[in-house]
Amino acid sequence: MRVRSKVVLSVASIVVFALLLAIAGRAYSASTPVTPVAPFSLGAVDYLGSLQTPADVKGRPSGFKRFVNKVLGMEDDTRRMVLPHGVAVDASGRVLVADTKGQVVHMFDSAGHHYKQLHPPSSDPFLSPIAIALDSKGQIYVTDSGRSLIFVFRPDGKFLRTLGSVGRNESLFKRCTGLAIDKQHDILYVVDTVAMRVVALSADGKVLDRFGKPGEGPAEFNYPTHITIAPDGTLWIVDSLNFRIQHLDASGKFLGTFGQLGDMPGQLDKPKGIAIDMQGHILVVDGRSDRVQAYDAQGRMLFAFGNTGSAPGEFFLPAGITLDKEGKIYVADSQNGRVEIFRLNGGQ
What we know:
The protein is mainly beta. It has three helices and 29 strands. Strand 2 (40-41) and strand 3 (45-51) form a beta hairpin.
């Protein structure tokens, strides 16, 4: 009789707890929207916000849900970026971030309030994902500098294949880093940092061209890192340890250069990411100076934004940069573990 009473009591307890959950579910929302930092001006640009954890697009759990998670031993979703480097935005506005130290690609979908992570198979994992770009079909390409391979994913994040392997333990690249894709022809331009050159590939991995060699002269490189493609199809390449930006045509012919070592406005010290905005400004991330500088095609500095720190609008060793179709600027603030979002103000 006592055993039966205990069973009845246990069942009753479960029913009561379930009813409490149901009632509370009506009284509390499933998630609480993240309170954004109000946009504010940094002079040349406006600061719009940042991405760091899934809560930035999914919303944070309500107080009651956090309580229930704790009672049931379930952790809140606190996954966050570790060392973001490459960043890209697809046609639907999803922000993709190559997290070098986290060995993952984060996908933030603000419109759909969704977050996911992209992983290759465990048998062929990321080691050091660094740059990310999309082709005309929305397929996602990620360079892995540690593996010297390019990982390819479908738009929904499903792994497809790798590019660059020429044998069991051999690669086309010595150390692939920067990546840009000509979407009109689906040609990949891959920076091979250690080989001091750029390799052009078809979307299926066939080598179409190679150009560049070690040196300080035109179309020569000293550890190049990042690359972007202008609307006219020409290439702008960060020639990192020559502390300059080189402008080449799609076949590697030298067109021009700008930049010199220094920490004064218009000078570069550890240049990293590069992008071109809708006004034709060439945006260069100056990693060691914790800023982004904008130039015209002749290399004249136009404006800059950012300074050292962890507050909104500040950087600590920023890396990659990209823009979306609306002109918003996304900067991977690597040591602060976030991507910051800006918009060029109307005065520039």
